[in-house]
Amino acid sequence: MLNRTACCASVLCQAYCAMCAPDGLGCMLLMSCIACRCADKRAAQNKMTIDFGWFADPIHFGDYPQQVKDRQSPPTFTDYEKSILKKSYDYMGLTIYTAKYAKEVPGNPYGWWVSTTDVNGKAVGEQAESYWLYNVPWSINKMLNYMRDRYNNPYIWVLENGISEKGEVSRQGNAALQDSLRVDYFKGYIEEACKAINNGVRLTHYFAWSLTDNWEWREGFTTRFGIVRIDFDKPGLPRRIKDSAKWLSQYIFKVSHAKRV
Predict the structure, then answer these.
(1) Is the peptide bond before 244 cis (omega within 30 degrees of 0)?
(2) Which of 7, 31, 32, 260 is 20 to 30 A from 18, comparing alpha carbons?
(3) Where are any strands of DSSP class E within the chain?
């Protein structure tokens, strides 16, 4: 189902939800709201509008969001430039890994503050090896539905989605192939992506990050995202299949191929 997709404007994105009062957790655009403070919902929406809309709005609406204009002074488009920018894509590309909470902070020049914990100190999800990354499956569902609603249901390609397994770098032998967190991550995110499709989202392609371990930005070889392990310290850089690759092969790749044939 998920391997029939593709896109032209790619936006690196995190999903943001509102940080709510202690009697409930809810989100402006990422979860159903349960007794949320309206101010925090505004913060989540503003954060999304600036982080995501800065790049997606011009190619769909032909101009920057007003919040971006108010805060960043971007270039001004002529009427002609707006006309050729508007809906100048075949599909939208989404790179999504995780989520954060947003809380309105009046003293902040942008009006919000983001956190990986809620008001009770509970983490948004299980943490990966990467300091910024948490396993938050609902984030992809909410982000896809947000794109459907805001941008008139475009075709969407998920260009990157994956997680670094905590402690994986130091594992030896067969233990280095047992990436249970990554298996859970793909199970959760793909299930939520399928829910979005069933809800009318036109997701046509999904790319897991990544096929093999590699040199990661800022983190080098200290984190691994691959579903195939590379032993960087051995001659010939031998490859070995991780449990996540076996799961994806059995439940996603083979099933998708059978349906396509």
Answers:
(1) no
(2) 7
(3) 9-18, 92-104, 112-115, 126-127, 134-135, 155-160, 202-206, 228-230, 239-241
